[in-house]
Each structure stands twice: as C-alpha cells, then as structure tokens.
Amino acid sequence: MSDAADTCLPPELVKAARAAIEANRAAGRRVAVAESCTGGLVSAALTEIAGCSDVFEAGYVTYADQAKMRMLGVNQDVLETFGAVSIAVAWAMARGALERSGADVAVAITGVAGPGGGSAKKPVGTVVFACATRGGDPDAVTADRHELGDLGRAGVRLQAALIALDLLTPPAALP
Question: What pLDDT score was predicted for residue 4?
C-alpha cells in the first residue's frame, strides 16, 4: 500500500511533513511543536511519516490559556496583556516547548480559526507563528503574524499547519 493511500490527511500536508522530517533528519535535528488553533494537526502530520520518531520529539496541544500556562510556562500576564493570539504568546509557547522537550527546534502556532472568535484587531484567519532554536539567543525567536483570511475553519487550520511545517524545515544545505 502506498503512503498516499494510507493516510487520512490531505496529500499536501503529508508532503510538507515528509519534507520537514527528511530535512531535519539530514540536519540531525529533533523537533517539537506547540499548537493551539491547529489542535494537533501539525503533530498528526509529522507522525504520518514512518520513521518520524528519530526526528519528532514532542507535540503540545495547548488550546486553552490554562494549558499554555501549565504545559508551556506561558506567563498569565503575557496572556492577559497581549491575548492568546499574539507574537508575545507564540514566542513564549515556542520557548516553552523548546525548554520542556529535548528538541533542537520548536514551532508554535496560535490563531483564530473561526468561524467565530475573531475581532476587528484579530479577525478570523489571524494566525501567529514562532520558531525557537536550542542554543540560540533566547531573544532571537522568530515570530510572525499571518492574515490568512476567512478560509473556513478547516482551511485556516490546514494553511496554518503548512506554514508551521515550512518553518520547521531547515533550508537545504548549499552545495
């Protein structure tokens, strides 16, 4: 049976997960993911790839603010000041995943998948990502906000997962 026939996930998501696993394996890196709006979709995609256990260290699904605080050490003041969908919270989630796992790199995802829950400042489709690397400057976490638009709940989650997998994929080594 081919890999494509043995998955419940969209083919583009499995392809992106395979690329992330293979590139991190080649780089000798272990990865962790801290997910909120994707609800474990990135972790599910990574574990669709046979042999991923030599690369995938941990996945944290921290949908509620209390889980972000308890499992990843996100400070309550940061959540209250900036809101769960913010660069500050994504940064703290990525740092927390990195500190609590044995991974070399961690990506965090937090956002508004919809159909409700959006606001004028954070409309449906707003997703924030952060990437932290072990041994790097703790203040040099890469974080970025994306406005994906109202693609429907599944569409926002899929696009967010694809972006997260891209962030987890190290650039190809130069020849």
Answer: 53
